[in-house]
Amino acid sequence: VMTSFKLYTILFCCRGADDSVEKDCFAFTESHQSSGIFQCHVFRCEVHEAVRKVLYSFELAFRSIPKSPVQTDAKLSAGAQLDDSKGGYATVPWDKTSSCFKLRHNLEKQVIVKVVQTSNVDLTLERCFGLLLTPGRNVKHSDMHLLDMNHTPVDDEGGIGGTRTVVGLWDPSHPHFALLNTETQKGTRVFLSVAVDLVVQEIQEPVRFLIETKARIFPQAEKFWYFGKKILQEQFYLKLKETIPTKTLNRTMYEVESIESETWRNKWSSSSNDHHHHHALSSTSPQDEEDDDDTDEPLLSGSGEVNKECTERVLSDWGEVLSRWRADLSRRPTGLRTLIRAGIPDPLRGEVWQLLAGCHENQQMLEKYRVLITKDSPQENIIQRDIHRTFPANDYFKTTGGTGQDSLYRITKAYSVYDQEVGYCQGLSFLAAALLLHMPEEQAFCVLIKIMFDNNMRDLFKNGFESLHLKFYQLERSIEELMPNLFDHFKQLGIECHMFSSQWFLTLFTAKFPLSMVYQVIDVYLSEGETIVFRVALGLLQCSRRELLALDFEGILKYFRVQLPKKYRSEEHTKLLIQTAVGLKIKRMKRYEKDFLAEKEKSALEEDPLVRMERENKRLMEAYLRLELENDDLAKELITSRITLGTQLEKVGLIICSAVEDLRGSRAESSDLRDENHRLLVETAQVKEMCRKEMDRQAQEINAKSKIVADYKTICSQLSLRLENMQVLHKEHVYFNAITSLEENCPVRQPVQCWLNNAPSTNMSELDREERHQVEKGSLEKQIRDLELQLAQTKLKLVESECKVQDLEHRLAASHKELQATKNTWFQKTISTLTTRKTDPSPTVHSPTSTTP
After folding, report:
1. Residue 181, Cβ density class (10 Å: 0-12 exposed, 13-18 middle, ≥19 buried)
2. What is the rounded CA–CA span in Å between residue 621 and residue 617?
3. Contact status, residue 501 vs residue 469, Cβ threshold 8 Å
4. Is pLDDT of 770 > 80?
5. Residue ranges per domain, the chain?
6. How much is the average pLDDT of 639-657?
7. For 463-606, CATH number?
8. 10 Å Cβ neighbour count for 607?
9. pLDDT, tens digit, for every residue of 528-540?
10. Going by C-beta distance under 8 Å and a sequence separation of 6 or more, which residues neighbour residue 830?
11. How confident is the model at residue 280 (pLDDT cuts 50, 70, 90)?
């Protein structure tokens, strides 16, 4: 019961006096701050000593109320030294330009970390639990690798504001540090994280301090002539909470509530509300985000999360449009373009994309795809190499040999076989991967074919990318018309359109941008055609014009490669981009195309004829080589077809020989079956005749037995009449005896005496009648028994004859069934067909017509 009350609501507690009747009672007052009600609870204990224990527990609980959190600070300094090949270590140089350390690979290094306590809280640094290192940033604790400790000198150990220095050996040959031991390319840097675990006497768990920095890896023999020395420092703020003291420890103990670094605090303090909102939309934590200027890591393809939530109103609008569209597939319903520009709901994208491409019922292409994936492609090695680079940030394509990579491999290989003029080109796999995320691979292949052929996207890969250069020229002229200041800025810096827009045209923005933006671009692309690519490209430049005007040559290229894709992880930026793109008016594309062709002709006329002929010769040579390859493939296919046909002909010949042998055996078996059929017909006729005779005999016997039965019935009726007569006589005799007895007892005996004198004679006649009746009765009973015996024998013979008749009928039905089965078999029909086709047909044996006797 006591555990149900919250400690912080108890205001007062007391117990009864020892010399009173309340000595085994205690009470406390409880407050309800939200309602302003106070309650007093009184309890009585069965055991008197339990009251003391309860009050003691209350005392300990009130003493252990946690105090307010304590704030303490610590400063962490990290540095690194390289092996100088002289038995010592030299300080690692610091590059001021790129703000990173300069490291040489294959050299042993040592990491030095110095921890200084800067607050006045009495904390004792007992020892170092471990020094850890790992490549990368924002890493998990489990990704850190423990370094071997070299030595641990301590300054002012155990005092307030004590300092501890930790040194760890960094073995460059360890596989965990392979990335930090690989030479970096020019202009690139790698991140590394250093952590130190300290054991503090006043804190129960070890405390980890983590610091991140950047580095460049140079060859072992690299010389650094101008460099600076820098020690990386970071200020940490620990928020501690005092814990409940125990009997064994007399000092105050704490537990860590949070650890914040100065860098992390500065980022949060400088972040605006919009920046926080952007974090919420992109579903990333503050630790995962870095300033765009502080990293050169581009956004991986296939990254980003797509919002699958949709309002009921939008779903109802799409449901109405799709119902009208399915009813009439020949034309698009009104209001469809407006809905598409607002974004297709993710669950409906697969179906809507197929309807927009016009391949929702293309069964012929589906069957063709199943044939194409069985053929070999000369570019399989290139396709297999590019599969691993496509959408590495997406879980569906991340696993090597998984379902996603296998489907992507099949669909790109099938296209390279289907379109042999273009084959496989880099960038095609990104578009196919985006389609595979919304539909099965067969439907994705059909939509890919429609995009490549109907929207003329395959022209970008033909004729030495001539059509792609036309797109660059049109985009450049459009920038000059719509954004002249940005055009002049690009011209002064030497920025050309092909430097940043080639992947935009070749992959439909699928290679670098997040999926949330990619899907909406494909939505409007399938709805409005290839001009939307120019609109989206111009929309990107217009939305980022202010940032681009403030950057130099390298900054602009870095912005297009890194910051611009990361910008559109936000749904707000994506919606603004689509609205800007569809609102742009592009009307001079045909004119720009004519100008491009005119300039090309002019440059061709001004070009040296020898150079032009060499280029033409090179193009023809490439076409010749391509045709040679196609010819070799066709010849190989022809030889393979001939070999296959020869093998099939041999198999067919063997099948024909086997069929001829089977036919001969069938003919012999047919002759035997005809003879057997004739024999069965003769036997059937004989059985019918026997059955008819037996049935006639049985009919005669039945008639005789019927006569016997009639005679028996007649005799029985006669016997019944005689029996009735005898019963009448017996009644008269009984009556006579009764009268006689009455007369003998009567007093008037005179009239009767005369009759009594004649009594003997009367009695004699009565005895004669009785004897005669007995004899007749015996003879009749004997005659009845004889008739019953004769009737029983007749019934037995009748039953035997019926059984014989049933047996004969069963045999007759079996003979009929066997005869019908012999007549109706497929083999009999085949034999009949073969006999009718002979030039001199043999006489056909007709089965006799069965008659029912």
Report:
1. buried
2. 6
3. no
4. no
5. 10-64, 72-265, 308-342, 350-455, 463-606
6. 91
7. 1.10.472.80
8. 11
9. 988 999 999 999 9
10. 666, 670
11. very low
Domain 350-455, CATH number (from 3.40.50.2020, 1.10.760.10, 1.10.8.270, 1.10.443.10): 1.10.8.270
Is the sign of the CA dihedral 631, 633, 635, 638 positive or negative? negative
Give which of 21, 19, 43, 39 is closest to 30, Cα–Cα.
39
Lookup result for tokens 């423990």: 146
Neighbours of 282 (CB within 10 A): 17
Using DSSP's 3-state secondary structure scheme, residue 561 falls into: helix
Tell me the C-alpha distance between 31 and 759, whole Å. Answer: 138
Cα dihedral: 296, 297, 299, 304 (round 10): -120
Tell the residue number behind the tokens 């003493």, with chain if given. 63
Task: Take residue 791 and report the two structure tokens written for it.
Answer: 């009737």
Do 350-455 and 463-606 have matching folds?
no
Global pTM value: 0.44
Q: Mind listing the pLDDT tens digit for each residue in 95-112?
A: 766 678 888 888 888 888
Give pLDDT, residue 139.
Answer: 64
DSSP 559: I
3-class SS of residue 72: strand
- Mean pLDDT, the chain, integer: 78
- Measure the CA–CA gap between 568 and 559, rounded to whole angstroms: 13
Return the structure tokens found at 761: 């004679």
What burial class does residue 560 get, using C-beta atoms within 10 Å of its C-beta: 0-12 exposed, 13-18 middle, 19+ buried?
buried
**If you write DSSP's letter for every residue of 377-403 in order, what string do you get?**
-TTHHHHHHHHTTSSTTSHHHHSTTSH
